[in-house]
Design brief:
two-stranded antiparallel sheet; 351 residues; elongated; five-stranded mixed sheet; Trna Endonuclease, Chain: A, domain 1; alpha+beta
Length: 351
Amino acid sequence: MKYKKTKTTGKAGLIYVEKVVNDHGSVFRRVHEEEDLGIDGFIELVKTEIASGRLVGVQIKAGDSYLAKSGDEFAVDVDERHLDYWLNLLVPVILVCYSPSKNIAAWVSVRDYVEHERYHECLPVKQIRVPFYKKFDSEALSRGIASLAHVRADERILLRSADMCLSEDVQRRHEGFQILANHPDSRRLKVTCFFARRLLMDTNVETAKQALFILGYGVGRGRWSWNPNNREEGEVIAFANILCSDLGEAEVRRLLELCDDEDFHGPQGLGERLFDVIGCCPATASEAMERVVRDPSAPMQRRANALYLLYQCDEGELEEARSDLLKDAEIRNVVEWIFSRCDENAEPKNH
């Protein structure tokens, strides 16, 4: 009776993975071959002898046939059916490749790999490449793979955080939105922009500032992105633009107020976010800012910010208009204030 060599190699891969997991102190549970639909086993991560209850699915590809010609990575051909299965599992899935001749194994997160390819518009994914430096060992289990399991578990937290954004309690809204705005799985989503739009007028100033930051990034992310032509980013930009297109004068005034003591330059400057947001409602924004500039009861910094924004945050254009602006009695003091700061070698705003 013949016993295929591929089965022997496959078992060698299983044994290697199981040993690494056992040495780490975690638990590896094999999936019986007759039940194997694309997963060879599950790792239950254990820390300091306490089971976390968090699982990671494992697909193992063992054999030197998976060694790439480059000599520093594995290359595994994949089909749409298997990718869909891995991506739709309720737990994260890693692909582990094992070379019997080199006695090394390396791993990659299937979801992260596909999302990277999708972001760079390299679809469909027909091959997954796993570099040798992504070693499958105890350190990988303690760090990268454990983090992967935690991120997927966080999806439940994100759902609860979204629910908190609808709370009547100011502090719960703040806590919920802070998580959505800062978590890597949610901060770039349209749903987070949606909640940001709702919270622009929140009584908690920090919540409102975070909402402005998220909305501004959504609208202007093409300016800060590594891949401004990415389709998914384009969808977020369009959605955020629609959300900001109906801002009223009271909201524009509130946003100006939020930026009284904020920077206007750089990707972290809240003033930059404001500049992007008001660009979605130019008529309303211009009227509101014109009134603020001419409002003697408003703080001087806010009036100066409004004038700066009216000139598209362009110091050159503002300088060219300086003489004419000084002739306007209602705003002369604002113009003088701005340029007195320039004359003192400071920029015309809190830059």
